[in-house]
Structure formats: structure tokens, C-alpha cells
Amino acid sequence: MKERPIPFLPAMVRAVLDGTKTQTRRLVKPQPKGAVFFDGQWLDHGHGEAGDTALHCPYGVAGDRLWVREPWRVGKPHDKKPPRDLWPRADGRGITVLYEAGGWRDMGGRQTYPDDLAMPPFAGKYRPSMFMLRAFSRITLEVTGVRVERLQDISAEDCIAEGIECFATVGGNAWRDYSGGSGFSVRDQHSTRSSFRSLWTSTGGEWDANSWVWVVEFKRVDS
């Protein structure tokens, strides 16, 4: 079993914590050319130049684990310290990790505060997910399956498994439009597909290219 980091945006962190997100799609790099064959671990594809090229899934295989990196903060007194100087400490006292998705953790006593707790006034500067230390991660995922498919082949069920947010309305369920902040589009309100599309493009992804993506299925386990 191997363990790897994986970044998530705050909205997707909340979906993982709520138990609504059990899949994530990530772009295959480089993009395959020609026929594609995937055996659960290696992706073979022909470039038409030097024969087949094998790509290993960077997110592992079933049974491997992923630890979630998310946007975070520590207390203001530590704002000038780089991550490497925040941990380890002799006892962890004085370090509180605050998560942009909600909730915070006192590293000294390893006490975790509710996910819906508002950001306290002592929160320091914003820190991108890429700089999160393993010790500060609060979510560990176990990979339960990996496959490869075209982005636009996603089903309605898989759109929901990606963690898109649902709103109950008089006319039925509506799905969040991630290109428009926290609301939803009337045009898209009955489409899980359009909601996922807006989520994908909100992170800089291209929808119309219909690229090959890794589909990683997972379940949450204790950190």
C-alpha cells in the first residue's frame, strides 16, 4: 500500500466530509493518442511514432491511500514561518490548523473542532493546499477503484458521486452552478451534467476537448 497527496478545493472537501463525494476525475497527462488500454494500473496507448507508451496512474491503485491537501491557515503569530518550520514541534503547542472548508484542529491536544465552525479571529494568512504538511491533513482516503474514460462520458450518477451540491426547490432538485459562486443557474437547475461541467471548468479545465481522465473512486478512512 502506498500513500500519496491529492489536492481538493474547499467545496469538494466539504463534500468529502459530508460523504457525498466518492469520486474524483483528474486529467491524464500526457493525453493518450490512438487506442487506449487500461488494466487497472497501467494505461497503454499508441502514439503512432515509437510504439506504445505506458502511463502509471499517479493516484495509485485499489488499496492505496490518498491524503487530502486543502487550503489552510495557522494562527497569526506564525504567519512569517514557512510550513517546514511549523512542524514537528516538541509538543505541538501553539499550532492550530484552520481549514478554509471549515473547522480547525489544535495540534497540541489533537482536538478537532466542528467542520461548520466559523473561521476564528486569530486565523492568519491564507496558505494554498500545495503547501499543506502531511501532519496537518485531516482526511485520508482509500482508493477503491481506478479507471480511464473520456470526460464527457460521465453518467448522471457519477456526476452526483463527484460531490456536486443539490438544492431542493419547489420545482424539484436543482444543482449548483460552480461558475456562478454559491448559487445555481435556472437554465441548468435540473441537470447534474451541467453542474459537473461548471465545476470542471471553474478549476480551469476544458470541457469541449473531451479529454481522457483518471476516474478515482474512494472511501474515507481514519486519518
Task: Give a short synopsis of this structure.
The protein is globular. The protein has 223 residues and is mostly beta strands. 12% of the residues lie in helices and 30% in strands.
Tell me about this structure.
- The protein is mainly beta.
- Helices cover 12% and strands 30% of the residues.
- It contains 3 helices and 14 strands.
- The strands form 4 sheets. The chain has a 5-stranded mixed β-sheet. A 4-stranded antiparallel β-sheet has the order 7-8-9-10, with no helix packed on it.
- The longest helix is centred in the C-terminal third of the chain and has 11 residues, at 192-202.
Unreliably modeled segments: none
Q: Tell me, what's the shape?
A: globular
Helix content: 10-25%
Structural class: mainly beta
Distance between the termini: 15 Å
Main-sheet strand order equals 1-6-11-14-2
Topology:
Layout: E1 3-7, H1 10-18, E2 23-27, E3 36-38, E4 42-46, E5 52-56, E6 65-69, E7 72-73, E8 96-99, E9 104-106, E10 111-112, E11 140-150, H2 156-161, E12 166-169, E13 172-175, H3 192-202, E14 212-221
Parallel strand pairs: 1-6
Antiparallel strand pairs: 2-14, 3-4, 4-5, 6-11, 7-8, 8-9, 9-10, 11-14, 12-13
